[in-house]
Design brief:
The protein has a single domain (10-121), classed as Endonuclease, Chain A, CATH 3.40.960.10. It contains six helices and four strands; from the N terminus they run H-E-E-E-H-H-H-E-H-H. It is 49% helix and 14% strand. A hairpin with a 4-residue loop joins strand 2 (39-41) and strand 3 (46-51). The protein has helices at residues 10-21, 53-56, 60-63, 70-92, 102-106, 110-121; strands spanning 27-28, 39-41, 46-51, 96-101. With 122 residues, it is of the alpha+beta class.
């Protein structure tokens, strides 16, 4: 568990590098708003979250019964509730929010996911 990175994961670093090459100026792990988005442009009120499939519950209802204990089911469920709450709070305060899943950045469609982030922030 201690090896799991909450900041600057491989996928995040790839997205940061792509955006820098594209000339987009942004803040990493912006802690002045709820949820600490991985990428933020405060002047435009744009926030991007790059969420790991397991930790944030991609298709959680399909695989939750395969988890070895109730601890993990509750942990992931709590993460999902927290993410929804943060998303709603940001939208209510005028922020536009984009959520990118880890499999989108790690798969064969990586380039289209990076372009989607770039378009959203531009």
């Amino acid at each position: 568990m201690s090896m799991i990175r909450s900041k600057n994961s491989v996928l995040e670093k790839e997205a940061f590098a792509y955006l820098r090459r594209s000339g987009i100026h942004f803040r990493k792990h912006y802690d002045k708003i709820v949820g600490k988005p991985d990428i933020a442009i405060p002047t435009k009120k744009r926030a991007v979250f790059i969420d790991g499939d397991f930790w944030h519950g991609w298709y959680f209802t399909r695989w939750k019964n395969k988890l070895p204990s109730d601890f993990w089911r509750e942990k992931i469920s709590a993460n999902i509730r927290r993410d929804r709450k943060n998303f709603t709070a940001l939208r209510r305060s005028g922020w536009k929010v984009l959520r990118i899943w880890g499999h989108q950045l790690g798969g064969k469609n990586k380039h289209s996911a990076l372009e989607r982030i770039e378009k959203f922030l531009s």
